[in-house]
């Protein structure tokens, strides 16, 4: 069954996948309103509301109806500056966003996680992602969609030599290890948002590639 979202809340709208998803949302004629809190101003659009500032400070002040929420927040210990700062973003902030979206009336949350997410993992990154997923499940969402891509392709704020060298190889890697273009991930997320199927759905990398074609 398919249901067209009309009032959207999106976090991470300036990130690799988030900016493509935002562009997609603003071209959909059925969407009445997109609420996208960001630190830096976005290009104006008649259906876009863009409160500006740190997300943690903006969350309590967000208002208006929301039926679907997208969480495209993602970092790493390297980007955040420490393991503690990474957890504060990829666990605490995401759970706070999910809780506020539920309070605003959203019934479907779609979140970008990671292929390796596992709360019992010995890798801190994978453990935090897994604990974040478990925390969202505990919020009692009518519909929760967890996308688990591999590495996202494309330019990043921090120019990293390893990414420059690995991106061409990751495009060719077969199966569920193949990296995904952020535009394709955005297409997949939108298609998943149109599906009305109560409960928790975990979408692995191979299915994201298929949905993003």
UniProtKB/TrEMBL annotation:
Q: Which SUPFAM superfamilies match?
A: NAD(P)-binding Rossmann-fold domains
Q: Which PANTHER family does this UniProt record tie to the protein?
A: OXIDOREDUCTASE HTATIP2
Name listed for the protein in its UniProt record: Oxidoreductase
Q: Which organism is it from?
A: Azorhizophilus paspali (Azotobacter paspali)
């Amino acid at each position: 069954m398919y249901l067209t979202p009309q009032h959207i809340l999106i976090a991470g709208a300036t990130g690799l996948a988030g900016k493509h998803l935002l562009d997609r949302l603003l071209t959909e004629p059925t969407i009445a309103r997109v609420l996208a809190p960001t630190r830096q101003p976005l290009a104006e659009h008649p259906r876009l509301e863009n409160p500006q500032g740190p997300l943690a400070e903006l969350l309590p002040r967000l208002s208006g109806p929301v039926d679907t929420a997208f969480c495209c927040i993602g970092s790493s210990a390297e980007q955040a500056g420490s393991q503690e700062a990474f957890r504060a973003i990829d666990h605490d902030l995401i759970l706070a966003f999910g809780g506020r979206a539920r309070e605003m009336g959203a019934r479907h949350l779609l979140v970008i996680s990671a292929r390796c997410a596992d709360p019992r993992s010995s890798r801190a990154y994978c453990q935090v992602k897994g604990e974040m997923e478990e925390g969202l499940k505990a919020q009692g969402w009518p519909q929760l969609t967890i996308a688990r891509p591999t590495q996202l392709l494309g330019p990043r704020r921090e120019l990293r030599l390893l990414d420059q060298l690995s991106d061409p190889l990751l495009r060719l890697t077969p199966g569920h290890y193949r990296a995904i273009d952020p535009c394709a991930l955005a297409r997949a997320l939108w298609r998943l948002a149109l599906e009305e199927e109560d409960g928790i759905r975990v979408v692995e990398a191979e299915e994201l590639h298929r949905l993003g074609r």
